[in-house]
Amino acid sequence: MPRKINYTFIFLLLIIGTVLFIMWSSLSQPGVKDLEGDFREEALYRNENNTGPIVRLYAVSLRDTLWQEMKQYGDFMPYTKYGTTKVYFFPNNSPVPNTIKPGAESIDDRYKPYCLAVYEKNNMGQVSFIRYPFQ
Prior knowledge:
This protein is α+β, with helices and mostly antiparallel strands. The chain has helices at 7-27, 67-76; strands spanning 40-46, 55-62, 84-91, 117-121, 127-131. Strands 1-2-3-4-5 form a five-stranded mixed sheet, covered by helices on one side. A hairpin with an 8-residue loop joins strand 1 and strand 2 (55-62).
């Protein structure tokens, strides 16, 4: 007498397998922690305006001048459509600002000589990455 195939059991196995695959795929995405350079966020500013353009500013220190890693770090930072995200990069062994403010002069003049690069994603989603912006 042939055994009857239990399609409900097979269907449940497929559903569970699919859910486990989606969870693994979601949790194994690369992020800031996967980058070389020991990136450390030193200062952060985010305006409280949730109805207009959101401005995010970061001062970040890192171990070495890894240009590609810096650009990837900027790409990993939160971004809101029609908002701006700007990241200032500084070496670990130099003075780094502990506060950052909005406007044309986001960082104090005394820190500008130490700034390695500035990453900016503007309100139209265009990315710019400038090496030694204040020299």
